[in-house]
Amino acid sequence: MTINEIYEQLKEEYGDSIIELIENPPCDSSIIVKAESIFDICHTLRDKPGFEFDYLMCLSGLDLGENLSAVYHLYSMKHSHKVVLKTIVPKDNPKIPSVEKIWRTADWHEREAYDLIGIIFEGHHNLIRILCPYDWEGYPLRKDYKEPEYYHEMKVPY
Amino acid sequence: MGLLNKLNQPYEAGGIILGTFEDILNWGRARSDWYLHFGLACCAIEFMAMNASHFDFMRFGTIPRATPRQADFIMITGTVTLKMAERIKKLWEQMAEPKYCISVGSCANCGGPYWEHGYHVLKGVDRIIPVHVYVPGCPPRPEAFQDGMIKLQKMIKEEAIFRKRKKLEEETKIELSA
Amino acid sequence: MGEKKRIELDYSKIESDRMRLNVGPQHPSTHGVLRLEVELDGEIVTEVVPHIGYLHRCFEKHAEKMTYPQVIPYIDRMDYVTSMNNELPYVMAIEKMLGIEVPEKVQYIRVIMCELNRIASHQIAVATFGLDAGAFTPFLYFFRDREYILAIFEKASGARLLFNYFWIGGLAADVHPTFKEDVLAIVKQVRKTNKEIEDLLIYNKIFIERTANVGILPPDVAINYACSGPVLRGSGVKFDLRKNEPYSIYDRFDFDIPVGMGEVGTVGDCWDRNIVRMREMEQSCRIIEQAIEQMPNEGDVQEKLPKKIKPPKGDIYMRAENPKGDLGFYIVSNGTDKPERVKARGTSFVNLSVLPEISKGYMFADLILILGSIDIVLGEVDR
Ligand code: SF4
């Protein structure tokens, strides 16, 4: 299935929740969806015959300046097709439903996105920091992040 | 080789070595150093190669120990992150005196490639524990590891144990006069 | 002296508390600085919680601050055992964005280097797995061979471990004149050693007893956890990006995908994951031989590029089959010479997340083996 067909079918089923399809060769095309319905869309994408996206390749968080964004790269082992989903949430209320229950692999990916970017995945069973120490402050991969002067009495900058 | 031939007649000429007790002690100490290996990152892979058949680190009289209590020196090979730093400090404090530290690789020396933007990297292990020998490189070649080991042995051999106070006095005198 | 009394124990009445044990981050057999929090019931593992991040070196932050070619050395340092393979998806992604076709000769050299590095990586994996099981000799044998492979890399790129050899649009330098003969000699040596290791380790009864039926990973769980590489193939799933989604020039070679078949135990146990690695080495040898035969002798190794590399605006996800599984790079370009964001989907990061799932119910000593059979590199887990 090409991404256009997937877009059409999703649009039929979810209507307004699917915002647009961005095509930009040679780069990847992607479907922008509303954050609230990401769980349902992902569920459909995994289980509906024809889609069967059983493999979550990557889940990344992005800082877009004003907004934050989460990007889902899905792959189907059976049909060997791919799709890219994007959601955009405002920085002051970065809440996205967790897809951890759909693909278990999303567990650590979501924790990482929370740790580095600060997206809050609602419904995640254990959303704590994963790479940085548990008492770390701030979200390092945000564009406006300033590294701390000291951490536990150790000087951080060179 | 002359010495070894005379082992049967220890009291004949040349069969006796004269030296200070300290020298002999240091000679022994320098050649049987056990180390606590602290492999952290890429440099540790080179260190694995170093322990294997081609380079054979053990011919320096070193044996890897898994516990700090039995180790004479610690080898920090790789990037020290802030999350890790406290552990290293704890391990260092658990080691028995006299203890030494070799810092291997640019990362352990000064932060290496991560010195500028590494918000989670400790820029040099010498910020938390004293370092006796620095081995530069990213990663250092196994030959450089060996060089670092020889440097440490040399240092141990020349160390003052009993004359410590005297030597210290001399050193401070020089410093003051200079 | 009184009469001796035999103590009768009623085991059903003994109460035992669960014990929480901390393994690592400094532990001789955790393959790096991984910390595991293990809950034990007697000697049975009931829960494993991995704590990672002890080697978090801020790769993604660095990638944002560097220009596109400058990112490559940091990519080397992610999975430091397989640097050549790491560079490939990144440079392919940028080349695709820029619309560059790399010269034929470069493609072949890249494939040969990647396969050599795959062998080197699997050698370390099997060697350390053997160490975990208590076999020291394979370690020495494999590291002896690995030095020959590293010698080739050194002649080509100047470095033993972290190469910075694949550049955008080509290679850093051409290979040395005796490259082909050197590589063929290595292939011969690898095959010889593998035969020895099979006798010494793989089909050794003690080794089989320890690794068969341990850490079984069913295929559906493997897919749900997005495992890849030998971990996925060990569970019997025939999936290899080199075949299923051929990139570079992998479609020109004839090779097989070894999968775990449960020869000595159940499909998806530690032994299966290990044997997949052993057999992949042989397949890599086959690819190398074919590539050496087809490789053109003449030709440039660097495409002409503008001084500043500025991919067009947009984002791309590119993945390639690393020795440990599929490594992906999600690159967002904003039209300048520095990337907006580079996210690396670390293979080991994803593969490690399955550890709590497959180690429950086994002995504590088996946990170390299961961890060894997943073959992680902490540099890639933490990045
Ligand atoms: S000095 Fe270089 S090789 Fe060593 S740990 Fe640091 S980055 Fe890795």
Write a structural description.
The complex is a heterotrimer of chains A (158), B (178) and C (383). Chain A has 3 helices and 9 strands; from the N terminus they run H-E-E-H-E-E-E-E-H-E-E-E. Chain A is of the alpha/beta class. In chain A, a hairpin with a 2-residue loop joins strand 8 and strand 9. The longest helix of chain A has 12 residues, at 3-14. The relative contact order of chain A is 0.14. Helix content of chain B is 41%, strand content 12%. Chain B has helices at residues 2-5, 21-30, 42-51, 82-94, 105-110, 142-157, 164-177; strands spanning 34-39, 63-65, 73-77, 100-104, 133-135. Chain B has a 5-stranded parallel sheet with strand order 2-1-3-4-5. The radius of gyration of chain B is 19 Å and the shape is globular. Chain B starts with a helix and ends with a helix. Chain C contains 15 helices and 8 strands. Chain C has helices spanning 59-65, 68-76, 83-98, 104-133, 137-157, 179-202, 205-211, 219-224, 230-234, 241-244, 270-294, 347-352, 355-358, 364-374, 378-382, and strands spanning 19-23, 35-41, 44-51, 166-167, 170-171, 314-322, 325-333, 339-345. In chain C, helix 3 (83-98) runs antiparallel to helix 4 (104-133) and helix 11 (270-294) packs parallel to helix 14 (364-374). Classes of the chains: A alpha/beta (158), B alpha/beta (178), C alpha+beta (383). The interface between A and C is large, with 32 and 41 residues. Iron/sulfur cluster binds at residues 41-43, 78-79, 105-107, 112-113, 138-139 of chain B. Iron/sulfur cluster (SF4) binds at residues 41-43, 78-79, 105-107, 112-113, 138-139 of chain B.
Name the overall outline of chain A.
elongated
What share of residues are in beta strands of chain B?
5-15%
Biggest sheet descriptor of chain B: 5 strands, parallel
Give the biggest beta sheet of chain A.
5 strands, mixed
Descriptive tags:
heterotrimer; B: 178 residues; alpha/beta; five-stranded parallel β-sheet; 41% helix; C: 383 residues; alpha+beta; three-stranded antiparallel β-sheet; 8 strands; binds iron/sulfur cluster
Summary of the model, kept short:
Chain A is built from three helices and nine strands.
Give me the secondary-structure topology.
The complex is a heterotrimer of chains A (158), B (178) and C (383).
Chain A: H1 3-14, E1 18-22, E2 30-33, H2 38-47, E3 55-63, E4 67-75, E5 82-90, E6 95-97, H3 106-116, E7 120-122, E8 150-151, E9 154-155
Parallel strand pairs in A: 2-5, 6-7
Antiparallel strand pairs in A: 1-2, 3-4, 4-5, 8-9
Chain B: H1 2-5, H2 21-30, E1 34-39, H3 42-51, E2 63-65, E3 73-77, H4 82-94, E4 100-104, H5 105-110, E5 133-135, H6 142-157, H7 164-177
Parallel strand pairs in B: 1-2, 1-3, 3-4, 4-5
Chain C: E1 19-23, E2 35-41, E3 44-51, H1 59-65, H2 68-76, H3 83-98, H4 104-133, H5 137-157, E4 166-167, E5 170-171, H6 179-202, H7 205-211, H8 219-224, H9 230-234, H10 241-244, H11 270-294, E6 314-322, E7 325-333, E8 339-345, H12 347-352, H13 355-358, H14 364-374, H15 378-382
Antiparallel strand pairs in C: 1-2, 2-3, 4-5, 6-7, 7-8
Helix pairs in contact in C: 2-3, 3-4, 4-5, 4-11, 4-14, 5-6, 6-11, 11-14
Bound molecules: iron/sulfur cluster.
